[in-house]
Each structure stands twice: as structure tokens, then as C-alpha cells.
């Protein structure tokens, strides 16, 4: 049986929120089979659980935000991406503020946290959402065109193309494809950092955003070049971060997808719109398990090895 996975032990992280600038303490705890991933706001007078679902996403400006009643957690996509990349099904995320800590701006620190806690196989079958026919969302025309698509595939593959019209971005790879059954998430995707432009920072901070952002947790560019002294971690780090984000956004559906995702200039809003379009078409997907691990897509059967 291809089994569900949780953590073997509790692990903790302390950091600041990218947009809030607030200090955040976060504790990752093992959870029982079929719990899913549940964020818990433990700083509120009565702690509030926010289970991960596509419908729990209530804001997609600059990040993915989930809510339950008046309780919110912002910027969940990097942690969710790490959970998707390592195949974590069940997890409690206790958090004492409104935003997941940004740490180094990538998913690498979350991968380290999850792997250091250890990954435990559970006595319950892992449930996948298998896409059975293409589902697509599109917006805009001409230079404003963007789209995202899920198509049937025996595995999980993502391809993404960006178009920023900026010298520093244009000189790097604009398109990347990553297949979870062939590549290593920790090596190939997880270290790609979020990025931004100095010309946008003033406007964002005036709107209460990017208050915790800086060169230690983001790639920052002026009108011409990357300002980080250590440069890029990957030749195509910008588009790889978009793959990282997409993996986190798509995992907000609550189960791993068996599908090929492709996108052009998509973002958090369009990724969530794609999930909702899929769920609106019950004939476009089915829930499957693998009693025989050998019939599962390559790369899903074994827990992901350490670095």
C-alpha cells in the first residue's frame, strides 16, 4: 500500500513575516491519518483551526491566504510547497501570528525542518486526485494574456513560462519543466527564492506589504540588475520560484494531484481559480489509492531522501 505520511517528531521555527514584518513562532506537529494539513492560530483567545482546502483560500494578492471565520494565515505557499515536494499528508501547523515566517524566501528551510523531524509512514492509503480530462483557465488578451492548465498524467509534472520584460530576468531561463518522478524537489526547486523590484517596494510598504522583506529573504532587483551580492542560486531561479509557488498553491486542494500542470504568467489567484474550476467539474477527476506501490507513479512510492 502507498501510505500516508506525517512527521515523526515536533519541530519549530522562528522568523518574520514577509509582508507583516512581525516575529512569528511556528510549530509543526504530527497528525493522525486523514487529518490533512491544518493551520492553527494559537495566539487567539480561542485557538482556531484552518484546514487546508481550495475553498479556504480567501486572498491571493501577493501570496496565498487561508481563512476560517475571522482567523487568517497569510503566505502559506512556501510551506505547502515543501509539504507537496516531500509528500507530507497530515500535519498540524501551530502559528502565533497571521503570517508564515518567510525564513530565507524559498522552501529550503521548510524542507530542512520537515526532514529533520523525520517522515513517518502511516497505516492508511495515500489518496490522490487524478485528473481525467483537461481543465483550463484563461485571462486577458495580447500582452496581458495568462493561463493555467491541468491535464491527465500518470505522475505530477509542472511547466511554467514567465514574461517580465526586465533585463535581469530576461537574461535567465524563462521556462522550466519539473517532473516529481524524475527530479529532486529539494535539489532542483526548493532553494528558489521569492523576488521583487525596488520600484515596487515603496508602493507595497505604503500598503502594509513587504515590511519584512530584504536581501536576506528575497531576490531584489533595480531597473537593470540583481542587487543581492551572492547573485542567483539557479540560472533560472525566477521561473523555478514560480514552480515552487505553483506546487504550494496546488497542494491547497488538500490531496496530491496526479496531473500535468502548465502555465504562462500564472500566479496565486489563477492557480486557485484553476483548482476551483477542477472541483466544479466532478467528471474531470477521481480519487485514487494504490494498494500495490508498484502501480504508483515513479517517485511517489518512497519517502524523499534527505539532502
Report on this structure.
The protein is 21% helix and 31% strand. The protein has 307 residues and is α+β, with helices and mostly antiparallel strands. Strands 11, 12, 13, 14, 15, 18 and 19 form a seven-stranded mixed β-sheet that branches. Strands 2-3-9-4-5 form a five-stranded mixed β-sheet, covered by helices on one side. A three-stranded antiparallel β-sheet has the order 6-7-8, with no helix packed on it. Helix 6 runs parallel beside helix 7. The longest helix is centred in the C-terminal third of the chain and has 15 residues. The model has no long low-confidence stretch (mean pLDDT 93).
In short:
By secondary structure, this protein is α+β, with helices and mostly antiparallel strands. The protein has 7 helices and 19 strands.
Which features would summarize this protein structure in a list?
19 strands; seven-stranded mixed β-sheet; 31% strand; 307 residues; 2 domains; Ribosomal Protein S5, domain 2; five-stranded mixed β-sheet
The percentage helix is: 10-25%
Can you count the helices? 7
Q: Which residues sit in consecutive blocks of at least 5 with pLDDT less than 50?
A: none
Domain unit count: 2
Measured on Cα atoms, how large is the radius of gyration? 18 Å
Could you describe the largest sheet, including whether it forms a barrel? 7 strands, mixed
CATH top level class name of the largest domain: Alpha Beta
| Gap between N and C termini | 26 Å
- Judged by helices, strands and strand pairing, the structural class is alpha+beta
What general form does the structure show? globular
Mean pLDDT: 93
Under CATH, the topology of the largest domain can be stated as lpxc deacetylase, domain 1
Estimate the strand proportion.
25-35%
Element order: H for helix, E for strand: EEEEEEEEHEHEEEEEHEHEHEHEHE
Strands, count: 19
Amino acid at each position: 500500500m502507498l501510505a500516508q505520511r506525517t512527521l515523526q517528531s515536533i519541530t519549530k521555527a522562528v522568523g518574520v513575516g514577509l509582508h507583516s514584518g512581525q516575529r512569528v513562532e511556528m510549530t509543526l506537529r504530527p497528525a493522525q491519518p486523514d487529518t490533512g494539513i491544518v493551520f492553527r492560530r494559537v495566539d487567539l483567545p480561542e485557538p482556531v483551526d484552518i484546514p487546508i482546502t481550495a475553498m479556504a483560500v480567501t486572498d491571493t494578492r501577493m501570496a496565498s491566504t487561508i481563512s476560517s471565520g475571522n482567523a487568517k494565515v497569510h503566505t502559506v505557499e512556501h510551506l505547502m510547497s515543501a509539504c507537496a515536494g516531500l509528500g507530507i499528508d497530515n500535519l498540524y501547523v501551530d502559528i502565533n501570528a497571521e503570517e508564515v515566517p518567510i525564513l530565507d524566501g524559498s522552501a529550503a528551510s521548510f524542507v530542512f525542518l520537515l526532514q529533520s523531524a523525520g517522515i513517518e509512514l502511516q497505516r492508511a492509503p495515500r489518496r490522490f486526485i487524478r485528473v481525467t480530462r483537461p481543465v483550463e483557465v484563461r485571462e486577458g488578451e495580447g500582452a496581458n494574456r495568462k493561463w493555467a492548465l491541468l491535464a491527465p498524467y500518470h505522475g505530477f509534472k509542472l511547466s511554467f513560462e514567465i514574461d517580465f520584460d526586465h533585463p535581469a530576468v530576461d537574461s535567465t531561463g524563462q521556462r522550466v519543466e519539473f517532473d516529481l518522478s524524475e527530479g529532486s524537489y529539494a535539489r532542483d526547486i526548493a532553494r528558489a527564492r521569492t523576488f521583487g523590484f525596488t520600484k515596487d517596494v515603496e508602493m507595497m510598504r505604503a500598503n502594509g506589504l513587504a515590511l519584512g522583506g530584504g536581501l536576506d529573504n528575497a531576490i531584489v532587483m533595480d531597473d537593470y540588475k540583481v542587487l543581492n551580492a551572492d547573485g542567483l542560486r539557479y540560472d533560472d531561479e525566477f521561473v523555478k520560484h514560480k514552480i515552487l509557488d505553483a506546487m504550494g498553491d496546488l497542494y491547497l486542494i488538500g490531496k496530491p494531484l496526479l496531473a500535468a500542470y502548465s502555465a504562462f504568467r500564472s500566479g496565486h489567484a489563477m492557480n486557485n481559480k484553476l483548482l476551483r474550476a477542477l472541483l466544479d467539474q466532478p467528471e474531470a477527476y477521481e480519487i485514487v489509492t494504490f494498494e500495490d506501490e508498484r502501480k504508483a507513479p515513479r517517485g511517489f512510492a518512497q519517502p524523499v531522501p534527505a539532502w
